[in-house]
Amino acid sequence: MRPVGELFLALRISFSLPLIFLDAALRLEVSAGLIRAALPFAPPVLYRSALMSKRAVVFGNLGQLGVELMRELGERGYEVIGSDRAQLDITDRERVEQHLAQADPQVVFNAVAYNQVEVAEQEPQLAFLVNALAVRNVALACRQVNARLVHYSTDYVFDGTASRPYTEEDPTHPLGAYAVSKLAGELYAQAYLDGALIVRTSGLFGLAGLQTARGNFIELMLRLAESGKPIRVVEDHVASPTYAPLLAARSVDLLERDQHGVFHVGGGEPISWFNFARLIFEVAGLNPELRPTSEREYRTAAHRPKYSALSNARIERLGLPKMPPLEAAVRDYFVHRKDLSGADFSPRGTSVPPSG
Asked: What's the pTM?
């Protein structure tokens, strides 16, 4: 029997954070991934570069990945037109077609996703609408304007039975409604576009997670540490957490090398969620009561892969830089987090910024 007052945490995610059980009674669903910042309604964002020679559209521009894509593309000389769901709902095919016809981009990045793994079991139609049928809308619109599509998928397309990082050649086997919808999105993109670029990732964390209640895994750990209660994190689920700025950079690298098909861009380091939590607290200089647990502690509606780390061997064979150690990425996150929030979580020890 679980002691009252302890916090039980099931952390088995790709883009999504899990269920939290507080005092064995209060259940909160927290979804990470492509989080929309809590900003007022605004028209689509347009970043103009000095070159004005390349134009990109970013759907989901306020999410953890979207904000980094906007920055990365702008720094590389793209004219970037960004929109979020408040401005343009990509489940509306007619609006998507009108938007791309007006923007006339060379490339479209789809960083929109339905990430609520547990809720998807109760509303699979909505998950499929956003993660699959909306991708069809975008792919069809890209075909009409002859634009490249870069679409993002998840490690959850695998069943987690492997004992080593998954490669692009491994067979897919999604285990639930969310995972099925994400795999269907991949297939729709490839069905309508010969040159679609599908990028699978795992455990995304980026600074945009600082701006919303849902946040990301790092922000969740920091909030739980503030509660003063014991924190239990699963140690039998392994992923490859990925820093959003690096994912954005590698995505544009692949685009500019004219790559298409499916590529894995994970954090480069398989790690359990318990060890990831421990690393976060070490870097932050915090010492909460952290205890390992397993999925056998309780059952949830959604079945998640136990091992979903991704191999980056394919992008490395192209000559792209290896992803830096996860510790370096976490340290870089805290450096920039302090700049944004003013919070006193200076990384402890030697800081080694992740390579671009």
From this structure: 0.82
Residue 20 lies in a domain: yes
**Rounded Cα gap, residues 123 and 132, in angstroms:** 14
CA distance 346 to 356: 21
Q: Higher-confidence residue: 347 or 354?
A: 347
Q: Which domain holds residue 297?
A: 1-342
Measured between alpha carbons, how far is 89 from 97 in angstroms, rounded to an integer? 11
State how many domains the chain has.
1
The reply to whether 25 falls in a domain is yes
Please report, for the domain that includes residue 184, its CATH number.
3.40.50.720
Q: What Cα–Cα distance (Å) separates residue 247 from each residue in 72, 190, 288, 299?
A: 10, 21, 30, 32
pLDDT over 70, % of the chain: 79
Q: Which structure tokens are listed for 153?
A: 């998928």
Does 348 reside within a domain? no
Q: Determine the average pLDDT of the residues in 229-253.
A: 96
What's phi and psi for 235, nearest 5 deg?
Answer: -110, -5
Whether residue 178 lies in the annotated active site: yes
Name the active-site residue from 152, 156, 166, 178: 178
Q: Has residue 356 been placed in a domain? A: no
Classify residue 222 as exposed, middle or buried by CB count within 10 Å of its CB (0-12, 13-18, 19+): buried
Given this model, what pLDDT does residue 343 score?
57
**Residue found by looking up tokens 């269920």 in the block:** 19
- Compute the Cα dihedral for 287, 288, 291, 296 and give only its sign: negative
Terminal CA-to-CA distance of the chain, rounded, Å?
47
Residue 67: DSSP 8-state: H
What does the alpha-carbon distance between residue 337 and residue 343 come to, in Å, rounded to a whole number? 8
Alpha-carbon span 196 to 252, nearest angstrom: 13
Please say whether the dihedral angle defined by the alpha carbons of residues 269, 37, 88 and 132, taken in this order, is positive or negative: positive
Distant-in-sequence, close-in-space partners of 262: CB < 8 Å, separation ≥ 6? 153, 168, 186, 198, 200
User: How far, in Å, CA of 108 to CA of 147, rounded?
Assistant: 7
What DSSP line would sit under 161-194, residue for residue?
--SSPBPTTSPP---SHHHHHHHHHHHHHHHH-T
Instruction: Return the pLDDT at 300.
Output: 77
